[in-house]
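Hey team,

Filing this mostly as a record. A colleague (T.K.) asked me to run one chain through the structure pipeline before their review meeting, and I want the input and output archived in the tracker in case anyone asks later how it was produced. No errors, nothing strange. Just documentation.

Input sequence:
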Amino acid sequence: MTKELNQLSISLLQELQTSGAGYDVLRYISLPKLLGTEASTLLYFMGKDLARSFDIQSYQDIYEIATQLGWGKMELVKEKKHSLTFTLMADAVVYRLNAPINVDFRLEAGFLAKAVSMIKGKEYECSEKINKKIYQVEFKVVST
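Output structure:
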């Protein structure tokens, strides 16, 4: 059995633009109820799978996808031999961090891990750190 990989054009995201409230309700309320304690792990792997769905060739593709998905402004702020540091800032991040629900950024972390792997040609993993003071999420992407 062969598995056909159909990558989506990044421009497709412009056609699917909608309000993010429904997305956040599903992500932060419904999915954790459905998935239980494994929700954050599964969201991480969903992010990796999401990255595989797109033809990602550059960091600019990552930035565009993050913007189109309503995650916010993703930016590479530091690159070392075996690691990269990205930040995510936006009104959407502020709203999520101020919401009266538990939020995380595991989907974005998984997405970044796989997207960087696709660009660099080797495997990476990603962790995130939330800075509520300045409403910023920092992602550390490390080669494995």
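Quick notes for T.K.: Helices lie at 12-15, 21-35, 39-52, 59-68, 91-98, 106-120. Residues 35 and 42 are 8 Å apart (CA to CA).
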